[in-house]
Queue: 2 jobs
Job 1
Amino acid sequence: MHVLMPVPLPALIRQTLSQHFTLHTLWDSADPEALIARIVPQIEAIATGVAILAEDHHFPITPAFMQHFAHLRLIANLGVGYDNIDVAWARQNGIEVTNTPDVLTDETADTAIGLMLNTIREFSAAEAYLRAGHWQHKAYRLSASLRGRTLGIIGLGRIGKAIAKRAEAFGLRIVYHGRHPQPAVPYAYYPSLIDMARAADILTVVAPGGPQTRHMVNRDILQALGPNGVVINIARGSLVDEAALIEALTTRTILAAGLDVYANEPHVPEPLLQLDHVVLLPHVGSGSQATRDLMSQLVIDNLLAFEKGEPLLTPIRDDL
Ligand code: DGY
């Protein structure tokens, strides 16, 4: 089987796919257009990935790109998120898409909790204070607290539920917003995001990126969250209106934010870098070696299953 890889995926994937398939790599080709023209009739699968997992190569898999390949039947994506692919078009045109869920759920939920604690208790700032020698003169200031807070989760999928489970152990009250109520969960459902923002004082963003969720957390939502409010985003930068967030932080409309993702990665807006009530991580949600290897293996296993005519391991479902 001929497989096209438009972006530099991790070595584990590259090496294993080269052993099993004829692998065509696009990003290092001197003449990508000529390469595509030459391999068009042979390509049955594309192995690609979200930019953070592909050395920051942004390569949207658009209808125009997919249309080149008449025999394309599978796109195996590295990443639980799939906003780099027009999945609706692929499905309508008989192309299956897989992602890498489950294996990263716990790692990502851990990151969300770590970011939440760090943001509210100011651990990064406190450490910087110590390293700068200020403790010698004065104890670090008192921070806000997690106690008595309500956590509002936007997107109660697999990762959202893993965050909720951890947050229960911290004694937080949990509420959620999503497209549908989930009768099996014990948390209150808010069909309206603004109503949830009024009821919560931590807003954690875990929903998929893409046009439907773009700027869901906007000026009005931030105002509803209020002056004790904290925004945690471990999903995609596109879900939060970054300009509105910067304004809300600057005017103290909300208390603080903890961000692992940004609208235009790896670019982080300068005003965010200047604020001291923001914790900024470089999109490390799933970023342990062990978890990234499991994600890579899932890309490989989906391609191998496809070639053998076996069921795909992780065809895309709508929840992360
Ligand atoms: C994903 O998987 O979509 C994350 O953004 C990176 O792990």
Job 2
Amino acid sequence: MFKKSLIAVAAASMLTLTACGGTGSAAGNAGTDKITMGFAQVGAESGWRTANTKSVQESAKKAGVDLKFSDAQQKQENQIKAIRSYIQQKVDVIAFSPVVESGWDTVLKEAKTAKIPVILTDRAVDSSDKTLYKTFLGSDFVEEGKKAGAWLVEDSKAASDTVNIVEIQGTTGSAPANDRKEGFEEAIKANPKLKIIASQSGDFTRSGGKQVMEAFLKNNPDIDVVFAHNDDEGLGAIEAIEAAGKVPGKDIKIVTIDAVKDGMTALSNGKINYIVECSPMLGDQLMDLAKKVIAGETVPERVVTEETTFTQEQAKQVLASRPY
Ligand code: AHR
């Protein structure tokens, strides 16, 4: 646990820790110099999530942080339980990636009362009380949706007829599903020919994407484009499109978000047409922020991840060196 007995700076650090909400775990943690972090992960729903978990676990090891990890299996009640257990265990810092945006105030207040700082990673909460967490590290999901929409606007410039889009949303109520939808809808306004004819959640999973796409294909004979909120859903959609005797990437174009290895492979093979990157490699930045927060340093309220986009040609060039 975090050492509060660094002799020369002891008094000053103790004051700072108390002032910033500190660890609140002085009695339990004395005698060791390891930070203990409780990390409540969303689940293992996608390739992105697996890469994110690996990044957090590896970075914790590198940074000498004692990581207590839990997988909420995409259920908010499991995440709340995990956070309460971290509070009971008097960890030094709690980090979590909220399954959905709403309903966190009570448990976050409990952490605040226990003087355990909270860092949001990957996904945001919609709480109006910004004192309930120290910082939020992750992507700008609205921007990601806009990038996907901007590509489609450009790609369908020459279209003479209506372009029928089906949208496979992420987990209902989650920040990436809400924000990507918003950004995409905003961007496609630039071409009134672009129309979303159906929109449903695939829960960010491959099986969900496949199921939703099967239903879309059954009910809509003229689908031109799939906008999937993540690669896994897009990969599921590919299976459904092929099973229906159509060619993904040609008969039906596909744009997705993430850029994980499987997605990038499908992009290189021409089955996906464009991918907007969402980086899961948040571990190093998370550990840095945690150390700063615990040391009482000021951290930015928001740390936005740097990301790019990939065409089929660009995917071919980087595929071999893609780390996840
Ligand atoms: O919150 C990030 C999103 O969650 C990723 O785009 C998706 O793959 C994951 O499940």
